[in-house]
Amino acid sequence: MVTGQRGRPRSFDRGAALDEAMRAFWERGYEATSIADLTKAMGIGAPSLYAAFGDKRKLFGEVVVVYGSRYGDFAAVALAEEPTARAAVERIMREAAEIYADPAHPPGCLVISAAVNCTTEEVAEELRRRRAENLTAFETRIRADITTGTLPSDTDAPALARYYGAVLQGMSQQSRDGATREELTAVAELALAAWPA
């Protein structure tokens, strides 16, 4: 009797396949990316995709984690490293202009663009949750500066956080429409002028 692993071992690089899936979702969005699109991009058959990743939704969940660790964590890093909310937001806006327009990968932010026309409620909800967490992180940092007197006591922390979140979302879409790094940087500079004195 022969024992051991049943079936054939995987004959593809899981990390490379995830990279290709990320690119497909980033370019097309969640809903518009079919299993056929994914298998073609990843260079594997549908049975291999299902065996390795479960299904499209689970694959997308893994893709979002990879995206976050590679491209999407710049805001969290800036909020943790900069001495003030203003310095953090300035860094975030400038880095967003650079990352969103980088020709080495699809334009914009995957978490923003993948949500467009998404009718799969659990995926849409997960993307909303991630965006809400970003707004909460902005607001928390702004409130800390209000507490220390770095920002005026009458600063509307939720509105200010939402404003910069909206600008970032707009910059993502503008980059998908062809805006250059220089053009996005100009938008960022104008937005920074709205920071409370």
TrEMBL record:
Keywords, ordered alphabetically: DNA-binding, Transcription, Transcription regulation
Domain HTH tetR-type: 11-71
Pfam families found in the cross-reference section: TetR_C_13, TetR_N
Organism: Streptomyces bambusae
The protein's name: TetR family transcriptional regulator
Superkingdom in the source lineage: Bacteria
DNA-binding region: 34-53
UniProt entry tagged with the keyword Heme: no
Transcription regulation found in the keyword field: yes
